[in-house]
Specification:
By secondary structure, this protein is an alpha/beta fold. The protein is built from 9 helices and 12 strands.
Length: 234
């Protein structure tokens, strides 16, 4: 069993007691430490005052929803967040991504699938893996330190989710070149691009809002029709 998994702490917020219990047993067998709460209010308290490496939030809960918990998490930090959404509910999925969720899993999901998604997010966030290069990536006003999971724009810190960081890093490493959405999905989301999946587009839209536009008003990240995205060099 890998050592880092024994140290990884998962916050699971789901009002389905039976499902949450099943997922907790499976995750703990896989070496994770799991804290389960069954309502959004308790989820917010745990997320803000506990010590967790990743939060798994069910969107549909009475009272405070998973979206409410996500908003509070993002208002206070960049802890990775995985959303559990109703299968086929594109609205909840897109809203979650726009508010800073790193990824989503449609319910019902298998414990094995959920575990794989959690591990993929942790790898991307740098909790499970680090990059080998300590040298920053510099493209104009953008500076990225992959090993430290840190990015700055004109000397000011960029507040990025783990998925946004990976997308921006991938685009910066290939500045001036078009990177396909398939490649971005593999490197930033840790999974193949699915048909009709808008996750990449939503994350890119969020990154754009955090970067200053080009002097002529154009966005720094250009969408190239039927090809992908390109980080524009000045």
């Amino acid at each position: 069993m890998n050592f880092y998994l024994m140290k990884t702490k998962v916050l699971l917020v789901d009002d389905d007691v039976e499902l949450a219990g099943m997922l907790q047993v499976y995750l703990e067998r896989e070496g994770f430490e799991v804290k389960v709460v069954h309502d959004g209010e308790s989820g917010i308290t745990e997320a803000l005052h506990g010590h967790h490496d990743i939060a798994v939030l069910d969107v549909m809960m009475p009272g405070k929803t998973g979206i409410d918990v996500l908003v509070q998490i993002r208002a206070h930090g960049a802890m990775p967040v995985l959303m559990l959404t109703a299968r086929g509910d594109d609205a909840d999925r897109i809203v979650g991504l726009e508010l800073g969720a790193d990824d989503y899993v449609p319910k019902p999901c298998t414990p094995r699938e959920l575990t794989a998604r959690i591990r993929a997010i942790l790898r991307r966030s740098g909790i499970a893996e680090t990059t080998s290069s300590a040298s920053p990536i510099i493209v104009g006003a953008l500076s990225i330190w992959p090993e430290q999971r840190r990015a700055e724009w004109a000397g000011h810190p960029l507040e990025l989710t783990s998925t946004e960081f990976n997308l921006l890093e991938t685009l910066a490493r290939n500045a001036g070149q078009v990177v396909s959405k398939s490649e971005l999905s593999e490197q930033a989301l840790g999974r193949p691009l699915a048909r009709f999946d808008r996750s990449i587009d939503v994350h890119i839209s969020s990154i754009r809002r955090k970067l200053e536009p080009l002097p002529d008003g154009r966005t720094r990240i250009l969408a190239v029709f039927n090809k992908g995205y390109q980080f524009i060099k000045e």
